[in-house]
Amino acid sequence: MIIVSVDDHMNTNETRNSLAADFPFLMDTDRKLLHELEMADTTDKIHGEIYIPYTFILDHDRTIYKIYNGWWYVGRPTTEEIRMDLRALMSKRHDWVYGSGKNTADSCGS
Fold it and tell me: What is the CATH T-level fold of the domain 3-95, as seen in this structure?
């Protein structure tokens, strides 16, 4: 998991600490990445840009497996949806043994 934050260094660290996160937090304080990935809604001329939260599920080779567009909370994935996506990706691995009926110890060469 990777988080890309638009907050400053102090706020990003506070968020990381409050979550007890041990995964990378990247900072995009100037919001360049948001524009490069076209994650800003610029259709509302009255209120300015609105940044849309996305969740990308990546395969082992970092190709995009699934994209969740989190606009207005409706498109944000649930924990169960993320778990199911990761399970589907893991089941494609050659060393995946869960649910195969094989003895895990035998499958791992033990």
Answer: Glutaredoxin (3.40.30)
